[in-house]
From TrEMBL:
AB hydrolase-1 domain span: 21-251
One matching Pfam family: Abhydrolase_1
Keyword Hydrolase attached: yes
Name this protein carries in UniProt: Alpha/beta fold hydrolase
Record flagged with keyword Protein biosynthesis: no
InterPro entries named among the record's database cross-references: AB_hydrolase_1, AB_hydrolase_fold, AB_hydrolase_sf, Epox_hydrolase-like
GO MF terms held by the record: hydrolase activity
């Protein structure tokens, strides 16, 4: 990791110039804010202010309730902007973090200057999906994170990536294993009950980038096309050979995809 300047609380990376155009990034499940480190450093080097918090219950941010509603995650992001005296930001996220970015836009559309939606899907949970997430939450409560994380890993990274970069595979596994079980469970239960963001996305009036990997088993390319078609003027970038973590599998390609979005945002 670089020596880019960082400010803020223990559960927040705040990189880049304080007066730079702000970019707020939400991590996925069951990760922490470190998953965005390559992008945060690139943003800071380009003069943007990268704000990357640990979600409530993940990383260094304590869990507070058995269920964390998605609006709570989004309101935490808005409260962070308030604390820093920022009216609005480019808002993005990956996987569950992308769904939180959609919820942020649903609640606070005037505070969004651009949207980054990576490896994510828009529709709310089906009854079957809710049952699956609740069952996973029950299992994590009973067994902890280890077996759950090991089962998720093959879908997080494309097989070729895991073979080529075993250090990355170990890092992703350890990041998932280190997730606080109570926080991961609260997030799973909140995710199972998230609101439908599609009506607000259909009215979005900001530059929007959708990113997906060709090998993603959790949010296939078709899901990204659905979001691209839903959001007016959205741009889709498909990163070949990557799975559910394209920002870590191909950080250079992800950065090149993100650059045009950021170039549309004036200070």
């Amino acid at each position: 990791m670089s020596d880019a300047p960082s400010r803020g609380e223990p559960a927040l990376d705040d990189l880049g110039p304080e007066d730079g155009p702000p970019v707020l990034l939400f991590h996925g499940h069951p990760f922490d804010r470190s998953m965005w480190r390559p992008q945060a450093e690139r943003l800071a080097a380009a003069g943007h202010r990268a704000l990357v918090p640990d979600l409530r219950g993940y990383g260094a941010a304590p869990a507070t309730d058995p269920t964390t509603p998605f609006d709570a995650f989004a309101r935490d992001g808005a409260a962070l902007l308030d604390r820093l005296g920022l009216d609005a930001a480019v808002v993005g996220g990956l996987s569950m973090g992308g769904q939180i970015a959609m919820e942020f836009h649903r609640l606070f559309p005037d505070r969004v200057r651009g949207l980054l939606l990576a490896a994510t899907s828009a529709p709310p949970e089906t009854p079957e999906g809710r049952d699956r997430r609740d069952a996973a939450a029950d299992r994590v409560l009973d067994e902890g994170m280890d077996a759950y994380a090991r089962e998720l890993l093959p879908g997080m990274l494309a097989p070729a990536t895991a073979e080529r970069d075993p250090d990355l595979a170990r890092y992703v596994l350890e990041m998932m294993r280190a997730a606080p079980p109570r926080g991961a469970v609260a997030g799973l239960r909140g995710r199972a009950r998230r609101a439908d963001p599609r009506p607000s996305l259909a009215r979005a009036a900001v530059p929007t980038l959708v990113v997906v990997g060709t090998e993603d088993p959790f949010t296939p390319v078709e899901e990204a096309h659905t979001i691209r078609d839903l959001v007016p003027g959205a741009r889709l970038e498909v990163l070949p050979g990557t799975a559910h973590l394209p920002n870590l599998e191909d950080p250079e390609g992800f950065g090149r995809a993100l650059d045009p979005l950021l170039e549309t945002i004036t200070p």
